[in-house]
Every structure is written in C-alpha cells, then in structure tokens.
Amino acid sequence: MRTPIIAGNWKMNMQLATAAELVTALKNDLAPLAASNQVEIVLCPPFVYLPRVAELVQGTRIGVGAQNMYFESKGAFTGEIAPAMVADFAQYVIIGHSERRQYFHETDESVNKKIRAALAQNLKPIVCVGEALETYEMGETDIWVRGQIHGAFKDLTAAEARALIVAYEPIWAIGTGKAATGAGANAVIGISIRGALTDLYGEAVAQAVRVQYGGSVTAKNIDEFIVQPDIDGALVGGASLKADEFSAICRAGLKKFE
Ligand code: PGA
Questions:
Q1: What is the pLDDT of residues 143-176, one digit of tens each?
Q2: How many domains does one find in the chain?
Q3: Which of 20, 42, 71, 97 could lock onto 113 through a cystine, CB 3.0 to 4.6 A?
Q4: Rounded alpha-carbon distances, angstroms, from residue 216 to 161, 163, 220
C-alpha cells in the first residue's frame, strides 16, 4: 500500500512570527499522527523560512519541503537557490508548480533538470502537472497530462521514478474554490498519469508512485479525494495556512486505512 502524503504549499505567504505560530500549532496537533508513520506530512514554506521551520519540527516526523530550486549546483546565478542548499534544511521539493510554469517560464525541460538535480541530493521531488481551463474544456486533459509526465520523467530510471511524488493540480481548480470532483481527479490520475507511467516503466512502477490531488482542497472536501483508489494524498495551498484546517486535512489521510 502507498503511504498517504499531505503537503502544505504556503506559496508566498507568512512571515517569521506567523510561520512560527503556525508550525507550533501544527506540531502540537500533528506530532502523534506524524509519529504513527501512517500519514506523511510535509510543510513547504518560502525559502527564507526553511531553517526556522526545520528547527521547529525537529524531533517530530513532520517533513519540510521547498517550493522550488534551481538545477545548477552552484555559481553565478544571482537570486537562485541550489539543490544542496535546500537539502541542508528540507527532504522534499515542489517542482514545476503551475505558477512557476506560468509566471516564471518553467518548461517540461527545466522541470526534468530540476528533478534530476533534486534526486542527486536525495531530495524527494513533488512534481506538479495539470491542465489549464481551456485544455480541460477542449477535452484534451489526457494528452496534456501524459505529455507533462513524459517530459518530467524523461530519461529517469525506474528506481528514480519510484522516488517521485506527482501532484495532479488542474490549474482551473487552484485557488478558485472550484475543486475537481473526486471521481474526475481519480480518473485523470488513474488513466492519464498512471497510464503514462505504465508506458514508461510498466505497471509495477506506475502503481508504486504516489500521486496527490491539488486544487482548492479543504477540510470539507478532502474526504472526497482521499477515498479514491488512485489518489494518495493532497497538495494543499490556501487551506495549509490555517492550523485547524490543515490538521484536519492531514488526519483525513487516515481514511485510506478504513
Ligand atoms: P489551493 O492551491 O489549495 O490554494 O488551491 C493548491 C496549490 O497550488 O498547490
């Protein structure tokens, strides 16, 4: 069975004091759940708060992730953060979020380079894929998402592929309050994402890779996603900024065992 994984993507929110408050509250709420090893929990703050968040979760099994990183290992890349720098504080890194693709011109090629660079530092990449509203309305989600999977996993070995976590995030569902349906997300993940992984690596790898759903996940709607057979957790944006809400979403991971 695949261990459910719930990750909070804080995006460009919080400051040092509010970040510490949030993590302290989550730590109290979630330490027992994290310690049980039944649900993997990850917090992805902005880069500058990684050290503080890492320090605060020390001694718990709550994981820390970055929201991005550069693929080069060092040098004259003003303003960028290297994989080894992320690895000093984090175990995970979100790669290819649609906001990075849209506003910062990331491509399947740069996503692939970042995945390799992350794996070289033993970071676990959370690789985001998902279609725009237009693509969805034209009925081209399957071909789009398959293309993104092929691009992201290009030339990765089966062993490397197994280490990845994929987040299916339809762009039209992100921050809109209009989440996909559980059945709809499950179909894209089961057919398009695991289908593309089957083409690339065969059934065993396709069944081993964990795939999250993301896009307007809340404490109210998480159950609809978590009970789906092909959905292994959630990548949570807005709702990860509130301790009660995010804790409830993490606890919903236990529904996988019912
Ligand atoms: P949202 O964001 O939960 O605020 O829709 C999800 C994401 O972009 O990861």
A1: 999 999 999 999 999 999 999 999 999 999 999 9
A2: 1
A3: 71
A4: 27, 26, 10
In terms of Cα–Cα distance, which of 185, 190, 194 is closest to 222? 185
pLDDT reported for residue 217: 98
Residue 169 is a catalytic residue: yes
Within 13 Å, how many C-alpha atoms sit on residue 72's CB side?
7
**What whole-number distance in Å separates Cα of residue 57 and Cα of residue 183?**
34
Q: Which of 42, 92, 216 to mutate to test the pocket of ligand 1 (most atoms within 8 A of CB)?
A: 216
Write the CATH number for 17: 3.20.20.70
Percent of the residues in the chain that have a pLDDT greater than 70, as a whole number: 100
CA distance 5 to 15: 25
Grade residue 239 by pLDDT with cuts at 50, 70 and 90: very high
Q: Residues 22-48: pLDDT tens digits?
A: 999 999 999 999 999 999 999 999 999
To test ligand 1's pocket by mutation, which of 212, 220, 236 has the most ligand atoms within 8 angstroms of CB? 236
Confidence band of 132 (pLDDT split at 50, 70, 90)? very high
In angstroms, the CA 83 to CA 74 distance is: 9
Instruction: Tell me if 126 CB under 6 Å of ligand 1.
Output: no
pTM: 0.98
Ligand 1 touching residue 169 (CB < 6 A): yes
Q: What is the mean pLDDT of residues 99-123?
A: 98
What's the start-to-end Cα distance of the chain, in Å? 13
pLDDT of residue 152: 98
Domain that holds residue 208: 5-257
150 is catalytic: no
- Taking the CA of residue 215 as reference, the ligand 1 atom at the shortest distance is 5
